[in-house]
Every structure is written in C-alpha cells, then in structure tokens.
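Appendix B. Raw example, untouched.
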Amino acid sequence: MRLFMLMPLFVWLYEIVSLIRPLKISAWYKFIFALILMVGISREFLYRRTARGFDVYELPYPALLAMSLIFNFLVITFFILLMKDACFIVWKIFSRAPFPGHCASLFVFSVSLCATLYGTYEGLRVPGVNSHEVVIENLGKEFDGLKVAMLVDIHADALTNREAVQKIVNKTNSLGPDLILMPGDFVDGQVISRFKDLEPLKDLKAPLGVFGSTGNHEYYYDLKGWLNALENDFGVKMLENEHVILKSGDAELIIAGVPDMTGGQMGISAAPDIEQALKDIPEGSPVILMDHRPNGAPRNAKYNVALQISGHTHGGQIPGIFQIAKKMNGGFVRGWYQVENMKLYVSPGTSQWNGFPVRIFDPSEITLFILRSPE
C-alpha cells in the first residue's frame, strides 16, 4: 500500500528531472510547471476530501475537467518519457555529441499535450454507433432483423452527468431498437447524489424491453437502492441469475443475465450462476447472455449460449494498457471472439470512467446488433 501511495510522487519527480529540467526556460516557469503537475498527482487526495464513497467526486464540472486533463497528461507523459530516456541511453552509447535535451523535452511535451487533449475529448464525447449483423443459431425467422442496442459502462457521475447520459439515451432511441441490453457499471455514487444523473434512462424506448445486469461498480455503493431505482424508477428490468423469454409467433429468444462476481466476493449478493440463470429454459431456444466481465466466457460457452455481451475492460483505453487489460480479462478486451460455439462481444464501453477519463484509438460506442437467422 505504501508503495502504491509513493508511485505518484515518483512519477512527479521523474517528470521534473526528465521533462522539466532540460527545458531552456526560467526557473520560475519550471516551478509553475512542476506545481501544475503536482495537482495531477494530488488529484486522488483532493477527490477523497470531497468524496461521498468510492470514486464519487463531488467537485464542480470545470474543476473535474481541469484535474482530469492534468492527470491524463501526467500519465501519458510518463510513458512517452520512458521511450525518450531509452533513446537517451542509446544516444550516449553510440554518439559523442551532446544529447538535445531541450528539443527532446519540447517534443515529449507537444506529443503528450496533443494526446491528452485528443484522448480526453474522446473520453467525454457522445459515443458513436457501432453496428454489427450477427447470425444467431436457432433464431426463428420472426426475430430475423431484430435490432438490439447495447449500453455498458456508463459510469454516471459528476463528469458523466445528466446531460451526458441524456445525449446517450437520445442517440440510442434514434436507432429505433427493438430491445436494449445494459450489462453493468451504470453509476459511480450513491442514489441520493447520482439519481438525477442516471434518471434519463427512464426515457429509453424499446418495444421488447430494457434489461440489465450488475457490474462491479454497483457493489461499491447502495446496491439495493440502485436495483430499486433501476427497476422501479428507470424501467430497467435487472436480470441477476435470471432470464426472460421473448416470443414472436412460434419463435422464442432467451435474454439472461448474471451478476458481477464482486457481489459474491463481498458477500452482499449471489455470485454469477449460469446454471440458475438458464434454469428451465426451453430446449433449443437461442440465448443472449449479459455478463459484465468477459472472462466468464469459457464457462458460459458450455451452456449453449449463442451470444454473450460484456464490457468492463473499456477496450484498454490507451495503447500499452490494452495488453494489461487483456491479461486481466482472460484474453478478451474489445470486439468479437469465438469461444467454442458461443460468440462473445466485448464493448469498449458507452462512456468513460472518471478514474482515468481518456481514450486514445479506443472510442466509446453505442453498440447495435442486428440479429440474423441462419440461412
């Protein structure tokens, strides 16, 4: 824990030595630059001073945005400086000329600033729509062409506020979905503070219904309160080790959901139980499963699930972290995977997480599946 707390200080000192010190500017400007970066490493402390629970930041939007920009710059610059200093070592080995430290620092600063502005914009903008036609085995002709919208990892909070959530809802409704599925991480915060930010979900429109399952972040707050608000106030039917059967003529389509594993680990709710979720389903009916984390796919594939939809990974967010996210999530990070006879789709998320609100080459999305029957 102490090492974890010292890491931000190490990053700050490293950037002073490697980025700021070589710059040919006055000591006064270097001091101001160092103070600005200090805000980045102090962000978590400042947040916690205003927090009302895990990752609940109750600062004004402009302050949150400014601190997010500085923090994102700090993280991105750290990785670019590592590459710069690797080049410095090679330069010293093979060249007798002085290393152009000032120019190298200016280059790192410019690249980091551009990447920060672009990545923060990508993290906060209204997501685009990513459409996929997907063949579902045993899907009845009555469901051919069914439009299923997927929203996940909204993380409503003081940064992804009511206005942002309303824009997501409006864009989703404009697609005319028949069915909307939401596999977790709706919110960061208590019901009393975040209810209005998530309230636009009540405006979602889909004739076959809006269904959800919990993500890990729901368990960091008032789980029962949020389940009640989602179902009774916002009209999201939560499927926790449960399923519903959609019917059209003689055709049936199973929509199932399992809770995130966090509830079982914390002892406050049931662990994900695919057997319970699919108990007594009609034999041969195709199943679409909501499971917040993708790493349960190998287990779920053994139960004749046709399609699993997941989130949680945020697509890795930036190059480099992608590989870490892959290792932590069973090799599943973003997009399509085939797991035995089951299709798995991992969304990069519909919004961003305030813990690191940046996306580089990893845009958020509203996912639209168009279901197709086999030929």
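End of appendix B.
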